[in-house]
Amino acid sequence: MQRVPETLLAIKQAVDEDRTPGRFLLTGSANALLRPSVSDALVGRMEAVRLAPRWFFR
Q1: Backbone angle region of 27, left / alpha / beta, with phi > 0 → left and psi within -120 to 50 → alpha
Q2: For residue 30, is pLDDT > 70?
Q3: Are 1 and 38 in contact (CB under 8 A)?
Q4: Is the pLDDT of residue 35 over 60?
Q5: Could you tell me where the DSSP H helices lie in 1-58?
Q6: What is the overall mean pLDDT for the chain?
């Protein structure tokens, strides 16, 4: 998502047409909520989940 931000409009449209949770999984290391274009496009349509590093589970 951070490399191709123009896909956000397509995702926004798809989510608005069908609000079924879990249809999209966007990954990246950048904090999406800090990017104005992302937070504006997906406000109310997105939830950020922070994952623990792999070593945490050993």
Answers
A1: beta
A2: no
A3: yes
A4: yes
A5: 7-17, 36-42
A6: 75
pLDDT at site 18: 94
Contacts 24+ apart (CB under 8 A), 41-50: 41/8, 41/9, 41/11, 41/12, 42/8, 42/11, 42/12, 42/15, 45/11, 45/12, 45/15, 45/16
DSSP-derived letter for residue 34 is G
Q: Work out the angle at residue 40's Cα, subtended by the Cα atoms of residues 34 and 27, and round it to the nearest 5 degrees.
A: 55
Q: Is the pLDDT of residue 54 over 60?
A: yes
